[in-house]
Amino acid sequence: MVKILLAEDDHNLGSLLCEYLKAKNYDAKLATDGIEAWEMFSNGDYDLCLLDIMMPRIDGITLARRIRETDNSMPVIFLTAKNLEKDILEGFSAGADDYITKPFSMEELLYRIEAIMRRTRGSRTTEAEIYEIGIYRFHPLTQILEKGDISHKLTTKESELLRLLCSHKNEILERNYALKKIWTDDNYFNARSMDVYITKLRKYLKEDSSITILNVHGKGYKLISK
Amino acid sequence: MVKILLAEDDHNLGSLLCEYLKAKNYDAKLATDGIEAWEMFSNGDYDLCLLDIMMPRIDGITLARRIRETDNSMPVIFLTAKNLEKDILEGFSAGADDYITKPFSMEELLYRIEAIMRRTRGSRTTEAEIYEIGIYRFHPLTQILEKGDISHKLTTKESELLRLLCSHKNEILERNYALKKIWTDDNYFNARSMDVYITKLRKYLKEDSSITILNVHGKGYKLISK
DNA sequence: AAGATATTTTAACTTTATTTAACAGGTTGT
DNA sequence: ACAACCTGTTAAATAAAGTTAAAATATCTT
């Protein structure tokens, strides 16, 4: 059973979410401020944290940083007020895996939780993360992309981008999302830089024609492969 | 076509919603109390239930429990008066997927229905969605339209539009609906842009004369093919 | 710390996708 | 029949993405 730490100071929304998650078979626990959340986190073995950004005592971003110091791979999703762009940027640099802006539908939240569990499952047990992409195998940890017995070492950025693409295989990886996660800021120049890396990755992966890094105009990229 | 069971005792609201959903191409059926709803559910093959919580004879929550006993994965959305916190909580433990508080906008409801349908039926269909259109085959995931051994890569917008047309094959695809889904806004200019794409698609599909993208004046388009 | 090397960003230019504009027909209701 | 609005088509303008190479940073080595 997936254990979720939910930190939300709005009591109405908090208990609502908590009940909903329980009904959906998650083992959800509610904290109503940052300190309480930190204490619960320290004493519990959670699989995922759902943190409101604006909370009394300790805000969600600071809390996420502390959580990440303890467990660098703990999945974190931020709940944030609509379009608080600045918060989102800071959230990513604090190690968020995703964010969702209020108001959101329960379905949307559930979808994101599931997507993250899908992506982190496996890497949670410290097992080496390996992606099979057509005839290639990719090891994000060592940044090695191999094809048969030929192995090629990727640079940091190449590897980070390929890893995001892989973890979103067959679904769209949004430009903004990738830019915030890898470049920490989604300005024009970073976007162009990302384009350059897409070209590089396409070159590395070109020997299997069933692999495509598809551009979704105005949105992002989609890695397509079996 | 998605079949929706709508249970709502307020007759005005009920028929309004029902008509609206039909206009949006859902196969909606209206029940005006809990018992009627239960009977209809038992005799029909619904894809989604939209239940008012306060209803005569059997309330929505009890009804949801019964429905869930029969079909554990039936998506349920509750309609509830604002601030009936307790109802909502209870609703979730009865297995609701989402809830929407009255008064709500039609668009909001539509959005949530779509979110749920995306999750429940998308999870199986996303695998390898392929449409056969006359002598053509269309792969939305890779955006490839093929005719025999000739394959042509569509652009994002072309593909999204063709996909919507295919998923509504031989039924009307409403302009507004398509505009909101693909362009996110249905203003004049986007509508003209859509016209341009219709022209493009017609060009691509012209080699099979049994295929027609028919305009339904003032409403939208209908893709006709075997 | 200087020089060599690898990596990342910026720039310039090319190509492609999408939107807007312009004009020509259609459809509908009065 | 006519006014108002909707649709079809083509071409131009704008915006986004693709590619390559040079410039700027960062990293490594001695």
Question: Which helices and strands, and how do they pair?
Answer:
The structure is a homodimer of 226-residue chains.
Chain A: E1 3-7, H1 11-23, E2 27-31, H2 34-43, E3 48-52, H3 60-70, E4 76-81, H4 85-93, E5 98-102, H5 106-120, E6 131-133, E7 136-139, E8 144-147, E9 150-153, H6 156-167, E10 172-174, H7 175-183, H8 188-204, E11 212-216, E12 220-224
Parallel strand pairs in A: 1-2, 1-3, 3-4, 4-5
Antiparallel strand pairs in A: 6-7, 7-8, 8-9, 10-12, 11-12
Helix pairs in contact in A: 2-3, 6-8
The structure holds a DNA duplex (30 and 30 nucleotides).
How would you describe what is shown here?
- 2 copies of one chain form a homodimer.
- Chain A is of the alpha/beta class and 226 residues long.
- Chain A folds into 2 domains: 3-121, Rossmann fold; 125-224, Arc Repressor Mutant, subunit A.
- In chain A, 42% of the residues lie in helices and 24% in strands.
- Chain A has helices at 11-23, 34-43, 60-70, 85-93, 106-120, 156-167, 175-183, 188-204; strands at residues 3-7, 27-31, 48-52, 76-81, 98-102, 131-133, 136-139, 144-147, 150-153, 172-174, 212-216, 220-224.
- The first copy, chain A, has a 5-stranded parallel beta sheet with strand order 2-1-3-4-5, sandwiched between helices. Chain A has a 4-stranded antiparallel beta sheet with strand order 6-7-8-9, with helices on one face. Chain A has a 3-stranded antiparallel beta sheet with strand order 10-12-11.
- In chain A, strand 4, helix 4 and strand 5 form a beta-alpha-beta unit.
- In chain A, helix 2 packs parallel to helix 3 (60-70).
- In chain A, 34% of the residues are buried.
